[in-house]
Amino acid sequence: MLALQTPAQAQITADNTLRKESSLFAPNSTVNGANADLINGGAVRGANLFHSFTEFNIGDGQRVYFGNPAGVQNIFTRVTGGQASNLNGTLGVNGAANLFLINPNGILFGTNARLDISGSFLGTTATSLKFADGTEFNTKAPQSAELLTVSTPIGLQFGKNPGNISYKVQAADSNDIYYGLEVKPSKTLSLVGGNISLESGNIGASNGAIEIGSVSEPGVISLTPTDTGWTLGYDDALDKGNILLSKAALDTSGEGGGSIQLQGKYVTLNSSAIFSHTLGNQNGKNIFINSSDLILENGSVVSVNTTNSGKSGDLNVFADNSIQIRKSGSDGLANGLYAQSLSTGAAGNLTINTKTLTVQDGGQISNTNFGSPRGGDLRVTASNEIQISGATSDTNRLFVSSILNDSYNTGATGNLTMNTGKLVVRDGARVITSTRGGGQEGNLSVFASDYIELSGSSFPSPYGYYSVSGLFSQNSSNKASNNLEVNTGKLIIRAGAGIYTSTASGEATISVRNFNPSSRLLFIASSFSIQDFTQVTVDVRSFSSPNNDNLQYETFVSSISNNIPYGKATNLFIAASDFIELKGETPDGKIKSGLFTDSYSVRDAGDLIINTPLLRAFDGARITVSSNYEGSAGNLYINASKLELDNSKIVAQTRLSNNGGNINLNVKDLILLRHNSEISTTAGIERLSGNGGNINVNAPFIIAVPTENSDITANAFSGRGGNVNIRAQSILGITPRLKLLPESDITASSTLGVQGQVSIQQPEVQPQQGLIELPEEVIDATRKVAQICPREPDAKQLGEFTITGRGSLPPSPIESLPGNSTPTLATLDTNNTSNESVKIKQAPEVFPTQIIEAQGWVKTSDGNIELIAAAPLGTPLKTNARAACPQSK
């Protein structure tokens, strides 16, 4: 046995399994211009070189290299003793061969550990290396040299309780990351064993591949050759161990970003980073993370991007149970998963698949395009739940938890698709697709089979900015937007949250099977510019918004610039088959609950169409299609059975010089106005020009309290007053006037211009309203009227016999009389004894001087009933008839 004697922790001892082909040591050799210990010998089989040791350790500052005989491409090194390998110095190959280090007891890289390898490196705690011809290079039952093979390695065989692999660096500065374990560009660095722990160190393979895998139980991991070395394959049934990166980094960035694969059960990144950045014109490769649970915390980042013309790789993250992105770094560095294009190269796609996804404390999942013609797509699937919440800040910035796909240049944004059972977005968190530099916006599609809950806002930043929770589809360009689609079983939106859309030529569809009665739905456009919107459709069963919650659409810009080509606001269609209820405002009164298609730009406000049986607005709520800048107001259409306003407003006003919009109310039953409510199309409320809009009301009843100052107004300042056209059967408590008074008024005035008109019409009675089509065939009365009547003293009343028809009262007191003719009474035919039905006789053309109502009825001998003009003389009247016998009317 030959051994290289160094301190105990640096001992390298060959075993006797390879006999005369055992390893040979040449200490104090010169390798790459520096002193090193060279390991020669071993068993050469074709392109493979085999070494076998009982111990393999490298001390601090020691440099240990394997010789590389001509023609050898792979060097396989096994450790058959019972101790882990401690590597505290440099491990290298004096040549271009790949190096495999196999020790089932563990591999521990220390602070000064380095790799100096021109080929690829694989460190593993597998028990054996499997070859294509069926042979194995085994550490537990080492075969003799005669059984070694020239075949290609195809897999790693693991036994029970495989040893751990760790890389631990004692950094002088807690923020330092040491760059130690690296291979040459376009090569592979693999660490595969039990639990994997990387602390304060970097693992690098520029343009190449990094493979980190953790295994806890017996199984096989496949090896597949690639142009950069190999890739590892994992069976889904293989039990995995844990992977921890703490202040560590995995980096394959280069001319074309390399691939990175992590396979483990619990994968945790703590203040760590995983990068594959494309720096040149080569296309990048992918990052793939597969685990049971993945945690990113304290500023950890996983990123694929491109800074040049080469395409970025894709980022694929799979976790059977959960993904948590939490606790952003103290320096404001946001945790997150990122796929970005920072130049002309295309951004990659970002795909997430898990059961439960949690993003909190400023964490982000982002696919961003800063320079490419088109950004990548972002797909998030969480079969159980997605939770996005909260924010964090540093001295200058507010980092909001978010899932976003956006573009900051003329390139298009990719699509953002989310599939889950439950989606919760709260405390200022956001889901966003946006374009901010002139490109086309991508689709935002959210599918939640159970429910979507949007709630609240963040704490303010140091500069007072805060974030409102919601789903955002924003377009600040003149390009057509794609679609916003939200599909869920139940939608809960409250405490200032909302759904915000700014779609140019696109469509937004909200499909909700059950809208929670304590919800708010808000649409608000981008704060950059607003372009030629088309239609937004909301179709819900019912919703209610108490306590400052609301269903709202609004187009809003925080600053106005004349050189931005603002477009018309989106039209909003709302259909609720049960009711719509809007309530409340913020304590300071600045934010109202309600429905809005307002414009804050130079273009017109959008139209708003509402269809529902019951529409209620109270406690300061608003329904508006107003213009707050230079555009005209939109038009409002309400179709309802009942409309109730209580200290609330329906307005289509303009603040400056443009015309007020039109309000069209088609209400089947009642309009009720209480406590300073208002319906207004007033123009120029800042005392400027502009014609008042028209108000058209069609309702049976309009009711207000005279002293509560509820108004219907189509006023103007210097322009022409609008017209108020009301068609109602009754108007109570509100009066047409020439000007507004502290009472309930209807006005169409102009302070300096031409007065408008107030027109009130009562619908005329239609003569044909009460006509009833009678059957042509005569009905056999004997089959319709029972011929029995209870006579017992205690008998209960059975019913009533009511006669209606021509000459009788109409069915309703508001309907006209069907006619002025009376029935002609028939005379008794004493000779008629048959059982045939009564026949209608033609009445003689006589002109009685007086019309006499029927005074009684008689029963003929055949059982028929006939009405007569006077009580018959031959029929005695019974005075003891019980109340149970039906009375004629």
TrEMBL record:
<dbReference type="Pfam" id="PF05860">
    <property type="entry name" value="TPS"/>
</dbReference>
<dbReference type="InterPro" id="IPR008638">
    <property type="entry name" value="FhaB/CdiA-like_TPS"/>
</dbReference>
<protein>
    <recommendedName>
        <fullName>Filamentous haemagglutinin FhaB/tRNA nuclease CdiA-like TPS domain-containing protein</fullName>
    </recommendedName>
</protein>
<dbReference type="InterPro" id="IPR011050">
    <property type="entry name" value="Pectin_lyase_fold/virulence"/>
</dbReference>
<dbReference type="InterPro" id="IPR012334">
    <property type="entry name" value="Pectin_lyas_fold"/>
</dbReference>
<feature type="domain" description="Filamentous haemagglutinin FhaB/tRNA nuclease CdiA-like TPS">
    <location>
        <begin position="26"/>
        <end position="132"/>
    </location>
</feature>
